[in-house]
Amino acid sequence: MQPLYLVWLFPIGFFAGAFGTLIGAGGGFVLLPLLLLLYPEEAPETVTSISLAAVFFNALSATFAYARAKRIDYRSAAIFSIASSPGAVLGALATSRMSRSGFDILFGSILVLVAIFLAINPGPKSTPRTGLADFNPPTRLELKGSMLAYGTSLSMIFGFISSFLGIGGGFLYVPALIFFLRFPVHNATATSLCILTLTAFTGSATHMAAGLFHQGMRRVVVLSVGAILGAQVGAKLSDHLRGEWIARALALTLALAGFRIIGSVF
């Protein structure tokens, strides 16, 4: 692959990182559709390994940014992260067992379904600059009860989908935190990215152990540099947007990406 061609991956990583951080989904749902279109002959496991590694660096950068803004609920993030790890390992290993066309249809369909859900229910209205001081995180009692039940069951599924699709599970975690646990949107996006850091790391480590990661190393480096810088920009922009706007932006983007991927198969 020509070095000049690799340079064009930097702005892709930057945009994916900025927008993914802004809406709390990580950059994978933006990045993977573009990679599928750029590399139509690549196997699903190669494309997902590249995307998931970039998601890790994007989520890590975003987590530092949102930690400074004190928007992350670390107790909730810890439960979701730990519960998602087994699913993340299984998802990373399962990707190689699916055909490229089947993978594209499944991926696109999931994006569209989540988009419809978010469009109908964008979550409670909130104002910009929402911090942890503006809401009450789940209590320790709730963490032992309903939170633990939701966090464990959902995160095992989300972890599998995250690694299997190579996009991180932010597009699932954000709605779950908003609707099941009543998080304000800004806190849900920040906590989601904290969860993604561990989930994406687990999936990427599994890809490395399975020998899949080395095929896209140079692409990962360029995309990750862009995603790291973009995450800082996205975190800053989130201070100036209302929560329901962020949710609707996520819904629109997911729908467009989903239909585009499905259409590429036919």
Task: Set out the fold topology.
Blueprint lengths: L2 H5 L1 H15 L4 H11 L5 H25 L5 H21 L5 H21 L19 H5 L1 H20 L4 H10 L5 H25 L7 H21 L5 H23 L1
Helix pairs in contact: 2-3, 2-4, 2-11, 3-4, 3-12, 4-8, 4-10, 4-11, 5-8, 5-10, 6-12, 8-9, 9-10
Report on the architecture of this protein.
This protein is mainly alpha-helical and 266 residues long. 76% of the residues lie in helices and 0% in strands. It is built from twelve helices and no strands. The radius of gyration is 17 Å and the shape is globular. The mean pLDDT is 78.
Task: Give a quick precis of the structure.
By secondary structure, this protein is an all-alpha fold.
* H and E order: HHHHHHHHHHHH
Strand content: under 5%
Task: State mean pLDDT (0 to 100 scale).
Answer: 78
Oligomeric state:
single chain
Question: Low-confidence parts lasting 5 or more residues at pLDDT below 50?
Answer: none
Strand count: 0
- For the termini, the CA-CA separation is 28 Å
Overall shape: globular
Give keywords.
266 residues, mainly alpha, 12 helices, 0% strand, globular
